[in-house]
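Ticket 4471: requesting a sanity check on a complex prediction with alpha-D-galactopyranose. Repro inputs:
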Amino acid sequence: MRKLLSARRAAGTYARAVTAAAGAVALSAVLAAPAVAAHPGTQTQSATATAGTAAGPAGGPALRLPDGLAETPPMGFNNWNSTHCRAEFDHEMVKGIADIFVERGLKDAGYEYVNLDDCWALPERDADGKLVPDPERFPDGIKAVADYVHAKGLKIGIYTSAGTKTCNPAGFPGALGHEESDAMQFAEWGIDYLKYDNCNNQGVDAIERYTTMRDALKAASATTGRPIVYSICEWGQNEPWEWAADVGHLWRTTGDISDNWSSMLGIMKQNLPLAEYAGPGHWNDPDMLEVGNGGMTDTEYRTHFSMWSIMAAPLLIGSDLRTADEATFEILGNRDVIAVDQDPLGRQGTVVTSEGGRWVVAKEMADGSRAVALFNESDTPQRISTTAGAVGLPAADGYRMRDLWKHEDLNTGGGISATVPGHGTVLYRVWPGDGAGSYPPAAEVGAGSAPYVEAGGTAEVTTTFRNAGITPARDVSVGFEAPAGWQVEAESPTTAQQVPPGGTLATTWQLTAPADAATGRQEFPLTADYAAPSGEEVSLTSAAAAYVVANPPAGTTYASDWEWLEAGNGWGPVERDTSVGEQAAGDGGPLTVGGETYAKGLGVHAVSDIGFYTGGECETFSAQVGLDDETGANGSVAFEVWADGAKVAESGVVTNDEAAQPLPADVADAQTVRLVVTDGGDGVDYDHADWADAQFTC
Ligand code: GLA
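Returned structure tokens:
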């Protein structure tokens, strides 16, 4: 149970490591570092001539940032997310990535830095206190790989920690107390970028530690003529957005990302509110990309890449491109999306709305256009909608709207919307006027709310094609696909010769479920084809859905013996009659809360949401709720019971030292009941939660 369950947990682990190591530091070295202004974000001068003053050593260039570096968010590669400390991180990998940057057009697309993370050095410095590259990984040293990377017209980055050791338990040397010597060594090797971590920091003030290295890098740059981008990696612990704009070019805002949806989502949500702090030469860094590492779907990776771009985040590829598939190259190489990230105005996009998991995030661009992300946090397709006015565009007769994943230009009268798949993002760029009418009209196709249907039964769904443009849509035709065993019949026209601007084509469909249909959600691909007045053809895809339901069992029965309609869970799948355990299915232990074990119940992990069909037949729900003892001393969650969209019971925040508490709920007449576990307001961290003895009475 001590795996890294979340980004927050990762950061917490290091914090503990730091405390444990305190006392082992060479304090004299720390104290010998130049004193700095208490708050480098102000104009206060430092106590010495070499730290934080307006002029550099011997009246040279100013030490403070901005210095013209990282005018747009850094782009490149870093090995950490794909290799961690494993042996495949070596000079062959670094050179191989540089080759691929050139061969696959990624260099031309803007990727520039090939960065080494932790584990490149030997644990011990040499007799002169110099860092020694690991001869197994880098047999020719770091300078040789730097030369190789430079020869390709690319740049190279390296890593160390603002502590006595880096984060890896093998104990690689950190730069605390060695700042000037290490910075000089990096510059002499030809290093263009330093990621400076936070582990084993001995409790020394963060501003002081990070400013000392800034000044060391500046001094080394002045001597060698090599500018070095400076990436602060203290995980947002000291709110670097408040003080780091003239210390580093970018600063991590969160704990470590991992290659799964909830980690990526949690980090995105922490980074979005920090928009005002980002700008040219000083960026929020929500950590490196996981695109291509296999733990998310391509839809989720497109969301990851879209949202990092609209947040003007550094785009550091974290997958081993030597084995990456074509979908990965297509995502990472999307120049329309990269242009959003790299826009010279340097704005980080801001949240316009975020109700019901329907996120609208907009970014002002240098040419007056707006990038607009319609991001669907939920598991199921949702229509997400905003307007040109709401994202800050001036009034106009029409707008050109480019779909940055489909690379298609459309016109709109001001509506900006789409039916977005679960976990998906539609990314548009919208310009006022700009000859909008010459592009085909934007249109949408979607379905009304998902009906309930019994196995072998029938239900009705209505689909709507809507012309959102300023020109007519011609030869419109809507298609509804029946999966194996299902029958779908149109009860009204599926085609129209013309749908005018603002007009719709609504079609009613009858669905018949197969007699052996399994309980749960069934999606149906939905398509629409139409033509612009110019004849240009446009195709849309979307989805409709229905829930296959069975009448609930009569009497009092355990929820863990029911089929659910759908279930979302923050860590591994929902488990029946055991705790959630780790990420694999069936790996939990006995449900145990406050030392008491329960034979029946549901084991979940925040954020979790399980939907049951009660069909208006049930009266009550009850459970004994609490954090499972497998969370150790951590975790806090809140349990909620929802009946047809209304919250009918809640536990309040529950922490680990509490016994299970009863959570009865009146669910009379409800068609559906949802069991929800939230993170208790403090992020997802060891949140293993149990619905012990969960029962319905119907
Ligand atoms: C910390 C950083 C990571 C990575 C590792 C290396 O966790 O936040 O990005 O550099 O250290 O040990």
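Notes from triage: The first helix runs from residue 7 to 21. Leaving this open until the requester confirms.
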